[in-house]
Specification:
ATAD3_N; elongated; ATPase_AAA_core; two-stranded parallel sheet; about 600 residues; membrane; six-stranded mixed beta sheet
């Protein structure tokens, strides 16, 4: 019925907080001029809201005309009822909107409380954080003050200790000066006393000079008479004995026979002594050329009893245990170890082996493990010891092989740097002594032997004499490690020289936490061209770096610095090689096999 009363039905405008404004009551039928003037003071939103309730006289006239029409109509009562129902509906809608507005206000209050509570919570958290930071700062200040106090106390103690040391040093110096002064006085007194005694003796000698000369003359005369009588007595006795011997032929025969038996006894004793000495050397001692051996000997047991007991209790181990090398080379060495062990058990003929490659690749170590694995004794000698012996080299080589033939368990004779005396006789300039030593070696190794196994090691095998090559049954090349082998070696020595000592809790040895695996992989790439011995020395340098640090803590940077230094040293060593040595070095660096030291 809005058209009836002259106002328009509009939706109330939105409030400032986003909620609906409650609708106002319908305007009155009269509008005053004061109310129109007050509209000018309203805001734009208020004026827009008031537009819906402005009075329209033309509309009132139309409403009156419509009322008269309705009074004359037979449906006037129904229209009035309908208008009342519409008004009730509108009032109910108004009440619903009012309740909705009130609910919106309550929700806004709740939201405001929630925001206020959140702000308070943030403020409390920030205050707590500030308090924690303040407490931490105060703790740091207190700790710093405590450290400064400790440092001050330490400085005071050091100063007191220094003063005490200076005082003790001064006292010691004064005491030393006093002792020196006393000794000087004693020495002066002794010298004065000795001088007085000498003067007194000289005075007595001068006074008794004639008497002394007479005594000397009488003693000389008596000695001359005694010597002359002794000579006369001896001459008479010898003359009588010679006369009696020459006049009696039985005595002559007896004398000649006694002298002959004496000469025979001396010669026999000399020969027996030499034979006994060689037997004792073969059974009890070891030849002079042998530097190291696992064979039991009485002399070595007396010199090193603990090592001898450990060697006797040592059980045979796997020949390739702890070995890092190329799979093909590992398979070949395992076959050699198995064949050697079975040859020893079946008392067969041993095969001679040549192991060649750059230094530090594990040739000596594998020879020892091969002997231990096979249940044999090993003996290590170097070719460089043969040359300085000169003419005695032949005898020394024969002694070595004679000693090797007396082994009951079988002997693995390892000759390191064998090319030092087994060079080519046709092209190399060698002395007659070296040539004789080479010939003696060839004579003793002409046939395979069930008593000893010959293993030669060399960095330049091309220098061997052809006859030496003819006596070799197996040739194994030990080359520098590849990337995979270097990484395994770096990890092995890092665990051995760094992680294990740190885990055992050794003094001044700690390790910072970092990615050990990544660092080991990085160092393996850096160590290209390095041998196993150089990598093992790198592990020792890590320990030295930790011991040399102020706090005894090994850091990642320290490890990498040591690795870079080792790489630079390796390159410098390679630069020092001569042209021929460079060619030899290139010829033996083509593989990946390697053994750990």
């Amino acid at each position: 019925m809005s058209w009836l009363f002259g106002y328009k039905s509009q939706v109330p405008p939105q409030g400032g907080d986003g909620g609906p404004e409650p609708p106002g009551p319908p305007p009155s039928s009269a509008g005053s001029a004061g109310q129109m003037a007050g509209d000018a003071n309203l805001t734009k939103a208020e004026r827009k809201a008031m537009e819906a309730y402005r009075f329209d006289s033309s509309a009132l006239e139309r409403a009156a005309e419509a009322a008269r029409t309705l009074e004359r109509s037979k449906h006037a009562r129904e229209a009035l009822e309908l208008s009342k129902m519409q008004e009730n509906t509108r009032q109910q809608e108004y009440l619903a909107k009012v309740k909705e507005y009130e609910a919106h206000i309550e929700a806004s209050k709740v939201e405001h409380k929630r925001v206020d509570h959140e702000e308070r919570r943030k403020t409390l958290a920030e205050e707590t954080k500030q308090q924690q930071q303040r407490a931490q700062y105060q703790d740091q200040l207190a700790r710093k003050r405590y450290e400064e106090q400790l440092a001050q106390q330490q400085r005071v103690q050091e100063e007191n200790l220094r003063k005490q040391e200076e005082s003790v040093a001064k006292q010691e110096a004064m005491r030393r000066k006093t002792i020196e002064h006393e000794m000087e006085l004693r020495e002066k007194n002794k010298m004065k006393l000795l001088e007085a005694e000498l003067r007194a003796k000289a005075k007595v000698d001068r006074e008794n000079r004639d008497l002394t000369l007479e005594q000397i003359r009488l003693k000389a005369e008596e000695n001359r008479i005694t010597v002359m009588e002794g000579i006369k007595t001896a001459g008479s006795v010898l003359g009588q004995g010679a006369t009696a011997l020459l006049t009696d032929w039985n005595k002559v025969v007896t004398t000649v026979g006694g002298l002959s038996l004496l000469a025979l006894g001396v010669y026999t004793a000399k020969g027996a002594t030499g034979v006994t000495a060689r037997y004792v050397e073969a059974r009890i001692g070891k030849p002079s050329l042998v530097n190291e051996t696992s064979r039991f000997s009485l002399l070595e047991a007396l010199k090193h009893p603990i090592e001898t007991v450990k060697r006797l209790k040592h059980k045979p181990t796997e020949a390739l245990q702890g070995v890092v090398l190329q799979p093909k080379l590992e398979e070949r060495l395992r076959d050699i170890a198995i064949a050697t062990k079975n040859t020893k058990n079946n008392k067969g003929l041993y095969r001679n082996i040549l192991m060649h490659g750059p230094p530090g690749t594990g040739k000596t170590m594998f020879a020892k493990r091969l002997a231990t694995h096979s249940g044999m004794d090993y003996a290590i000698m170097t070719g460089g010891d043969v040359g300085p012996m000169g003419r005695d080299a032949v005898t020394a080589i024969h002694k070595v092989f004679d000693w090797a033939n007396t082994s009951r368990r079988g002997l693995l004779l390892f000759i390191d740097e064998a090319d030092a005396f087994l060079r080519k006789r046709s092209s190399e300039q060698i002395s007659e002594d070296m040539r004789s030593a080479l010939n003696a070696f060839l004579y003793r190794t002409g046939e395979q032997n069930p008593r000893f196994m010959l293993v030669l090691a060399s960095n330049t095998p091309e220098q061997f004499d052809y006859a030496i090559n003819d006596r070799l049954d197996e040739m194994v090349e030990f080359t520098l490690p590849g990337l995979e082998e270097r990484e395994r070696l770096v990890r092995l020595y890092f665990d051995k020289f760094v992680l294990q000592p740190a885990a055992e809790g050794k003094k001044r040895f700690k390790v910072e936490q970092w990615d050990y695996s990544a660092v080991c992989s990085k160092m393996a790439k850096m160590c290209e061209g390095m041998s196993g011995r150089e990598i093992s020395k790198l592990g020792v340098s890590w320990q030295a770096a930790c011991y040399a640090s102020e706090e005894g803590v090994l850091t990642e940077q320290m490890v990498l610095d040591r690795c870079e230094a080792a790489v630079r040293q390796h390159r410098q060593k390679m630069a020092w090689l001569s042209e021929q040595e460079k060619l030899d070095h290139k010829s033996i660096t083509g593989g990946k096999g390697f053994l750990t030291q």
